[in-house]
Amino acid sequence: MRNSMSLGGAFIGVMAGVGFASGQEILQFFASYGWNSLIGVIIATVLMSFFVMNLYTIGSKLQTSSHQEAIHYICGPKLGSVVDLILTFFLFGIIVIMIAGAGSSAQQQLGISAYFASAIAAIITVLLVFLGLKRVMAILSWVTPVLALMIFIIALYAFTHIQRPFSDLIQIVQTQPQASHHWLLSALLYVSYNIAGLTAMLVVMGGRIKNLNDAKLGGILGGLGVGILIAMMTLVLIASADQTQHVDIPTLFLGNALAPWFGNFVLVFLQIKLIFTCMGLAYALAARCEAYGLNFKGAIIVCMIMAYIASQFGFVSLVSYVYPTMGYLGFILMICISIAWFRSKKLSLSQEPEESLMVQK
After folding, report:
1. Terminal CA-to-CA distance of the chain, rounded, Å?
2. Average pLDDT by consecutive 10-residue portion of the chain (361 residues)?
3. 212/90 Cα distance (integer angstroms)
4. Pairing with 292, which of 41, 52, 234, 353 sits 20 to 30 Å away (CA)?
5. Which of 50, 319, 79 is nearest to 202 (CA)?
6. pTM of the predicted protein model
7. Which residues, 6+ apart, have CB-to-CB distance to 340 below 8 Å?
8. How many CB atoms lie within 10 A of CB 173?
9. Domain boundaries, the chain
């Protein structure tokens, strides 16, 4: 159970950085569709639990330390090589957005240059990534309760300071940028880009767990926990649509509205969250580069320099274009994971009669 809680907490922790800590992701993929977004959240929660459970289980079953073996297991050797290459670029894409988010949040709160803040975040990531995956997992699990408390406090403030009727707020929030033309597609894209972007990290984390049941439960707990936080954040963004419609980092804006000191706390937490999420992703990316024969430390440094350069396109723009694109391509991986799950179920069912016959003999 302890391992399951650790895996679940680690997934919530890494998802916070990639999927919803800033609020911009939830705004574009859920809240901007009004009340339909809540149905999308439910669908996303179920799918997220299913896919994370499978990825943790596959990693545990293979006891893998690199995602390449797991991808070939899921997709087969030929398609697996193509998907593996795509996932490598996905890892890089998310790292770019994490660096951009660190710069944008610092600029919004402190007024300093986003370029400078992004550079500092990239340097810190390089310096800390050598802590190793085990410590990254421990840190990600530790910050999860803090994240939940922070979102709860922001939600309490937002719900007690609603300034307009909900009918007006729904109209306002629906004018915000949307990930696609339909709420259901956006919910699916949200699941897809997160699963595709985090697959490399999730299978490696699952590979550290020997008990398959612990891995399965960890995935389910992680998916459910993320779903609850997404639902809360969606309602917060609808309730505060008139206040947050022109800001890059809605959670930071609401933290400042509550109290300046709390806004500073949110900034510090976001920076820690983004950097440590970036650490986990950079670790997985460097491990992948190392499999190709590249030097681990050298790969980290080169990737972070390239990520810093790419982050200059801006946080909101990157979320609007990179994540949906990743989502569409990620559907391939989601289909492959589903087929692998059905295949394993079919295999286990076919083995049951054989086992019963052996018992009878």
Report:
1. 36
2. 82 75 88 95 96 92 79 86 84 89 91 92 86 62 77 90 90 92 95 88 84 90 93 93 88 91 90 82 79 82 92 86 89 90 74 52 51
3. 27
4. 52
5. 50
6. 0.86
7. 54, 58, 73, 74
8. 24
9. 7-348
